[in-house]
Design goal:
It is built from eight helices and 15 strands. By secondary structure, the protein is an alpha/beta fold. It starts with a strand and ends in a 6-residue tail after the last strand. The structure holds phosphoribosyl ATP (PRT) and zinc ion.
């Protein structure tokens, strides 16, 4: 049995549970639970506050955790990042009032910066040889300049809407973040094997999200041209249609090549093009 800690309620909770389920792990009803054991995989899920997760993983109470990289960096616990998960993406940035004349990082010398990330900010400022005073506050960091508490802030940004509505502008990104799986550095071989199984499933889910399954019909003489346009996994499947002189071609294409390929296929005489999502993709 491996223990995985995830955020109880917050921005990462839903995506963490969804990923676990997409990996084929069947959980009982998780509402109002602090822990639960999966039905079909030897994993126990612990529901915790995100800030506590690195500590629990570091001391071995949990084996794995899903948490923002920003929290991992700030808590400075001795854990390893085992996998990046691609959700909860945001950045930790320095922002100043719109009226602040930004001439570069030196403009922060002798200024007061409010943040909930004093450790990450301190490392950044030290590296950049800037001497500013850090005011740690635990929430509503964006209002600090407006109420005279600080000259600048360092906080998480995703859309930038919160900065804008508080009259602030982003001037320096100091960390790009996303949800990650962290692991206890001293996992037993059995638990390491379970982690590897989980990573394999997560990668299959991620790969599948980037690809689409495509089916189309084409006149037989156009099949080579159609195949030439499909950058498939190996080689496309070609099946004869009941209608003589026509074939059905099946393949896999990447989401980002999608429109470009579709245009080319239509021009090559393909008809009845279907593009469908893939649930898992095992290479
Ligand atoms: O209760 P608990 O301690 O578990 O949760 P929490 O309140 O500390 O964290 P939560 O749920 O707010 O965030 C969890 C994680 O989500 C963070 O640690 C980040 O890794 C990630 N994440 C992604 C974000 C954002 N995007 C985000 N935009 N966390 C916070 N924000 C906040 C930011 O602090 C700011 O107030 O959203 C505002 C900015 O958003 P925009 O879109 O207006 O730029
Ligand atoms: Zn938190």
């Amino acid at each position: 049995m491996i223990r995985l800690a995830i955020q109880k309620s917050g921005r990462l909770s839903e995506d963490s549970l969804a990923l676990i389920r997409e990996c084929g792990i069947d959980l009982p009803d998780t509402k109002n639970k602090l822990r639960c054991v999966a039905h079909n995989f030897p994993v126990e899920i612990l529901f915790l506050r995100d800030d506590d997760i690195p500590g629990y993983v570091a001391d071995g109470t949990a084996d794995l955790g899903i948490v923002g990289l920003n929290v991992v960096e700030e808590t400075r616990k001795p854990v390893e990042v085992a996998e990046r998960l691609g959700f909860g993406t945001c950045r930790l940035s320095i922002a100043v009032p719109k009226t602040f004349e930004w001439t570069g990082l030196e403009a922060l010398n002798n200024k007061r910066i409010a943040t909930s990330y004093p450790n990450v900010l301190q490392d950044f400022l030290e590296n950049a040889k800037i001497s500013a005073s850090i005011h740690e506050i635990s929430g509503s960091v964006e209002i600090a300049p407006g109420i005279g508490l600080a000259d600048a802030i360092c906080d998480l940004v995703s859309s930038g809407g919160t900065l804008l509505s508080n009259g602030l502008k982003e001037v320096q990104v100091i960390l790009q973040s996303e949800a990650v799986i962290i692991r206890d550095t001293a996992l037993s071989p059995k638990k390491t094997a379970l982690l590897d199984q989980l990573k394999f499933r997560i990668r299959s889910v991620h790969r599948a999200r980037n690809f689409k399954y495509i089916l189309l019909n084409a006149p037989n003489e156009q099949v080579p041209a159609v195949i030439g346009l499909l950058p498939g996994m190996k080689s496309p499947t070609v099946l004869p249609l009941a209608l003589s002189g026509w074939s059905s071609v099946h393949s896999v294409i990447q989401e980002d090549q999608f429109w470009e390929v579709i245009e080319g296929l239509k021009a090559a005489g393909a008809q009845g093009i279907l593009v469908v999502p893939i649930e898992k993709m095992i290479l």
